[in-house]
Amino acid sequence: EGKRSWIETETRQLAYKSPGFYREEKLDENMQVKSVTITDTVNLKKISLNPAKKKATVRALAFANYDPDGPFVWVKKEIKGADLELVGRRDSETGQTNIFRTAFRDIANNEDWSYDFWIDAKTKDIVEVHVPGADIYDPENDPTMDNPPEEAWSTSNPISHIKQFRYGTG
Fold this sequence. Notes:
The protein is mainly beta.
């Protein structure tokens, strides 16, 4: 009906350290850490930290949700094996980016699908990955983007996610 928004945003910071360590921080609206999860994909263990409650939980994992070889393995495979099309250029936090898209038919779900890869023009690093690409859903041009969310909880599947990559030594 166009009066409410289904869009929720959440900021997460992700880091990877070889061999197989992933760190995920979830931030609140004030960019303060609300939780930290560190996953060891080699030894199949995970620790979850809740700073507000000063609580830590350690779990053994039956399988790893992440690739032990790193978070960019799937992206590298997609880029290497895909028919990429340059669909635009944009400014990002790191400077000028080139946007490449791979579009394909998702046979399992019987729908067209795409990925947009934002690549730093100078360093050639991956800056962002948009799933699906803007040809299917563009959050910047969604007419309901500024509508308030509904008050009652609903169950839904996400229509899109954007991963932003930040490189550093920390």
